[in-house]
Amino acid sequence: MANPPPGITDRLRRERGLTELVALCLANRGIHTPEAADAFLDPRLKSLSDPMILPDIGPALRRLFQARERNETVVIFGDYDVDGVTSTAILTEVLTSLGWRCAQYLPHRREEGYGLSQAGVENCLARHPTTLLLAVDCGSTAVEPIAWLNSRGVDVLVLDHHQLSDPLPPALALVNPLRSPGAAIDPFCSAGLAFKLAHALVKHGREAGLPGFDTYNLKPLLDLVALGTVADLVPLVGENRILVHAGLERLDGTSRVGLQALKRVARTRSPIGVYEVGFQLGPRLNAAGRLETAEDALRLLLCDREAEAHSLAEVLDQQNRERQEVEKRIAQEAGDRVRDRFDPDRDRVIVEGDASWHIGVVGIVASRVLREFHRPTLILGGDSTVWRGSGRSVSGFDLAGALRECSDLLEKHGGHAMAAGLSIDPARLEEFRQRINDLARQRLLPEHLQPEVRIDASVPLGALSLPVVADLRRMEPFGMGNPVVHLAVHGLTHARTPQRLKDQHWKFWVTDGGPPVETVWWGAGQRPVPEGRFDLAVIPEAGDYAGRRFLQLRLIDWRPSRTA
After folding, report:
1. Residue 66: its pLDDT value, please?
2. Which helix (H) or strand (E) holds 422?
3. At what angle are helices 238-252 and 222-231 packed, to 10 degrees?
4. Which residues pair with 517 in a beta bridge?
């Protein structure tokens, strides 16, 4: 638990009328002035920065408006995850509404691989001959495919947030915030960048006096921006927080028939929040691209007929169930392999692969293995010649950077510090495993390999209530970079016998001498139950049963009490 500088909490309470708990949580997250608290608790769209600060945005605009004047077709080459599909939908909607001709192409995960691959661009041009290709959520490392496109008279614009290659790809414009590391540009996902490009297009069109631009409203795009931003796990701070705060409200009452149908099949409850996007809507949009092609997901976002929307939503829901079954099987197999061979001193990075594992779910499986072992994890699948995989990392280990240092062993690689992808000849897997573990032994400290429970504040049990839960919700949306508030409650005992729920969960009633409070421990598995006097790390929530609302604590971790 952090200790804010003296007087910060009192100043926030006094000058902004905040409760002590909210003021302490804000201060512990580096929000130390009343003005910063205002910006955090009341994010406004008017606070968004000028999109023209993005690198290469000027050349991108000039080429796009030239295409509009010439009536060229702009082909949007997206990606197959939620971020890629939503950013493709955003740009399709904006460009077609404002006078451009455009087409879309989403790669096939198994047949064409990740991003702007050579196979992907060749198939794209065969389907959509063009002189201008806009690569979205991919392209930052596609040196050879972009050179190939250029040789065939195709100009390429890249709008992306992934790590860059050296040398840079020969795109006409490479709009990637990582090109300006010293600039005050937030870590947008591609849906956020698509919104920024849309803002720049509208601004330029208005300045040029073009018809239709002065009345074009960007706000209806925010539901798609929120979907992509939350699903891509970028930090929900700064401008991302503004976009998601406004976008979730827009998503809750969306007029898009596709999203309305998706919410129905997912049985989402209002109001729509980060949980509903991350665990209900996002996985269904992702499912199509994980198993086959994401074209159905894109059609759903763009369709305007209810019957088509209903049919597409049902297809995505079914594909999501199939994805869950495939994921469950592979996660069991991968987990068993790791448990059989795991050596905590040797295995600083877990690397497992199998030709039978579906490459569409290896990233999800990597996340599950990481949660169990708390090691950077790479899971691969493929065929006899090339395996493709996804990895997830822990704080302290730049996974994409480590892959760059293993590039001589890899066919392809890219991504972020915390999530990355690669392709490799399976014959080189053992050499790669040894190399990346050597790198990890040099960089990972013992504390990086232990799960850490972050605590925002310690409170007595009697200080928690439904009004406190409501007060803490002012800090939403929670997510990456702005995690849900974790509180420590000390010196507790059981008020009655714990109940086992479905062999995986526990329900407790805890007390510190006052009224008991219901506590649930989801996914406890076979871990030991608190006993004697204990301290809990919890998330306070509002329970709801038979129309009755009550205080409920969600248990994160526990330890024997250190209080007398």
Report:
1. 98
2. strand 419-424
3. 120
4. 510
The answer to whether the CB of 423 falls within 8 A of the CB of 410 is: yes
Single-letter residue type at 508:
F
Q: Is the pLDDT of residue 403 over 70?
A: yes
Backbone phi and psi for residue 242, each to the nearest 5 degrees, phi listed first? -60, -50
Which stretches within 342-428 are classed as H helix? Answer: 362-373, 399-405
Residues in contact with 209: Cβ distance below 8 Å, sequence separation at least 6, in sequence order? none
Q: Is 180 helix (H, G, I), strand (E, B) or coil?
A: coil
Q: What is the model's pLDDT at position 527?
A: 87
| CB-based burial, 222-244: b 16+ in 10 Å, e otherwise | bbbbbbbbbbbbbbbbbbbbbbb
Task: Say which residue the tokens 């062999």 belong to.
Answer: 503
Query: How many angstroms separate the CA atoms of 301 and 87, rounded?
Result: 11
- CA–CA–CA angle 231, 501, 522 (5° rounding): 30
- Cα–Cα distance between 375 and 430 in angstroms, integer? 18
Residue 479 per-residue DSSP state: B
Task: State how far Cα 420 lies from the chain centre.
Answer: 13
Phi-psi bin for 224: left (phi > 0), alpha (psi -120 to 50), beta? alpha
For the chain, how far is it from start to end, CA to CA, in angstroms? 21
Cα→Cα distances 32→8, 81, 134, 393, Å: 6, 37, 41, 30
Helix (H, G, I), strand (E, B) or coil at 432: helix
Strand-by-strand arrangement of the 101-105 sheet: 101-105, 73-77, 132-136, 155-159, 173-175
> What does each C-alpha distance from 458 to 2, 186, 517 come to in angstroms?
11, 32, 16
CA distance 311 to 309: 5
The pTM for the full model equals: 0.90
Average pLDDT over residues 43-67: 97
Does the bond joining 515 to the residue before it have cis omega, within 30 degrees of 0? no
Q: Are 123 and 146 in contact (CB under 8 A)?
A: no
Q: How far apart are the C-alpha atoms of 141 and 407, rounded to whole Å? A: 13
The answer to whether the Cα torsion of 35, 39, 44, 49 is positive or negative is: positive
Residue 6: is its pLDDT beyond 90? no
